[in-house]
């Protein structure tokens, strides 16, 4: 009689986080060193996470400054992309279970130009995000909310997200229904229509989506995406990652169990793992 067979646990990934040091004066400064990478890995290991992916915001790096117009982006556009990439690669060379990613904003007609600027680096995956509609923030108040109706914000948000999905420039969509951040939603039929359209776009484009716990920390107090949207993705065979969107090391793996439970509830059994922008599926941990 051999040992009882222990079924493999599957894999847990946290594929969305920002390489930051300790918060200071209300901001979370980038600290682009392998030591910072190690701090994030230690927290992840303590939470039984197998692999983490760094996805710093693309607008923090001066190499991309031509693309930005808004003060919000230009004020932040001062760090060195080579230093960021170097810190994560140094972590990799130390044998740490880390992946090199970037959170790439939708920039409309300049998407190809932005893609070209970041093309020289050895990304494992690129995360695509929409944070603005008509160049005004969706995730700040008042932001776009005192200029457009809720329905207009949602339509604008999902139109841009679908464009980004179909652009071929990103591998995973971040926080896919960010427009619900303040708990405002249009009529249910419109929500359902927009959910179906984005699920269709991702399926056509072969783009994955993340199940993110960041929404639990926002006014809406829910995971991104809604269960109904995740079910629409599942129905069309759109693969998933799981993500905390941590802006401090303490938040790595934040409530990932809830994201995994939601994914299972709608029928997912596997999670996407990326390397060199190629995706493979592993059993969901
Ligand atoms: Zn984001
Ligand atoms: Zn993020």
Which SSEs are present, and which pair or pack?
Elements: E1 13-14, H1 34-46, E2 51-57, H2 71-74, H3 81-93, E3 98-105, H4 111-118, E4 125-129, E5 132-133, E6 136-137, H5 150-166, E7 172-173, H6 188-205, E8 208-212, H7 227-235, E9 240-243, H8 256-265, E10 270-275, E11 278-283
Parallel strand pairs: 1-2, 2-3, 3-4, 4-7, 7-8, 8-9
Antiparallel strand pairs: 5-6, 10-11
Helix pairs in contact: 1-3, 5-6, 6-7
One zinc ion binds next to loops.
What does this structure look like?
This protein has helices at 34-46, 71-74, 81-93, 111-118, 150-166, 188-205, 227-235, 256-265; strands at 13-14, 51-57, 98-105, 125-129, 132-133, 136-137, 172-173, 208-212, 240-243, 270-275, 278-283. With 285 residues, it is α/β, with parallel strands linked by helices. Strands 1-2-3-4-7-8-9 form a seven-stranded parallel beta sheet. Strands 5-6 form a two-stranded antiparallel sheet. The protein has a two-stranded antiparallel sheet with strand order 10-11. Strand 10 (270-275) and strand 11 (278-283) form a beta hairpin. The radius of gyration is 18 Å and the shape is globular. The two termini are 28 Å apart. The mean pLDDT is 96. One zinc ion is lined by residues 103, 129, 131, 174-175.
